[in-house]
Amino acid sequence: KELVFSGMQPTGNLHLGNYLGAMIRWIELQKTMECIYCVVDMHAITVWQDPADLKRQIREVTAAYLAAGLDPKKSIIFNQSQVHQHAELAWIFNCVARIGWMNRMTQFKEKAGKDRENASLGLYAYPSLMAADILVYRATHVPVGEDQKQHLELTRDVAQKFNNDYAASIAENGYGDAFFPLTEPMIQGPATRVMSLRDGSKKMSKSDPSDYSRINLTDDADTIAQKVRKAKTDPEPLPSEAEGLKGRPEAENLVAIYAALTGTTPEDVLRDHGGSQFSGFKAALVDVAVTKLAPIAGEMRRLMADPGHIDAILVDGSDRARVIAAQTMDAVKDIVGFVRAR
Ligand code: AQP
């Protein structure tokens, strides 16, 4: 059975990269597929989070999901820590995954920085918990940005190794020749890797110290206009064909953002704006960004005024998620050989 799973960390302001790289697809997918969207709070604490800030950010990310168009009647929306089976399955995956696999993860290397000895054990094991997030629902499709590709490959490796290691027990327990699916990453659209507005070689990220590097989902129209106006560019006008964007990362990024915001392609954008100076193109980009994002920011503010409503959605979502996760965990315990109450 096909099922979609994805999530975001409540580690700060969501930005245009999170929205265009992942969320915009989530909203499309919920129209045709069964979808589970998680606020991954247990991932967030792999680096220090102030408890009061974390609480607010969990509600804020949930508000962003709802404001952007996720429908809690169609999709399951919840926060990870309320479904304990994620942590339980992650432990089993810690025993399936190999240390060598974790050592190759570029996100760990980037986030741990030079002082690797001092990074949390959780940051190191992050991909194992991510595999559990996905596989506890036996999800078949995961819509994410380009930066998550390596973690999704690891998720497939974990599923494959579990299926191989426990092949005999999987068959004995009546699950055929494979228990976990090999999940397909969905990395699609013109903006799978939105770059920083200040530096076309770095991805737009929550943790960049410069707020001018990103457009936050909560930015007002003036702030968006200022950030786009200040965005780094080169002195040439826009080319008329996508080929001409090669070697011009800042131009390529702004064109990709425009295409993703308008549901078109870079080719379409250049057909209309090829030959334009950046001053003119940036003004058009501000228009489309404000049109798309201002209603989201407004709706987020409205939702944040009633935290009780947000919490109720998370409780309802986690109750529904737990039913699926509990079935998987019971099966996994039988397969692994744990004794359990029936
Ligand atoms: N720049 C980006 N372009 C496209 N997609 C992106 N995503 C993140 N940045 C970009 C996608 O957003 C989803 C959620 O990401 P996350 O919350 O797990 O955190 P992250 O990838 O660690 O996001 P940040 O903003 O880069 O946070 P920091 O600065 O803390 O590292 C994922 O699907 C991701 O691909």
From TrEMBL:
Subcellular location, principal: cytoplasm
GO BP field: tryptophanyl-tRNA aminoacylation
SUPFAM superfamilies to which the protein is assigned, alphabetical: Nucleotidylyl transferase
CDD domains for this protein: TrpRS_core
Catalytic activities: tRNA(Trp) + L-tryptophan + ATP = L-tryptophyl-tRNA(Trp) + AMP + diphosphate + H(+)
Amino acids binding ATP: Q9, P10, T11, G17, N18, G145, E146, D147, V194, K203, M204, S205, K206, S207
NCBIfam families: trpS
Family according to the record: Belongs to the class-I aminoacyl-tRNA synthetase family.
Description of how the protein assembles with itself and partners: Homodimer.
Protein name (Swiss-Prot/TrEMBL): Tryptophan--tRNA ligase
Species the sequence originates in: Microvirga makkahensis
Gene: trpS
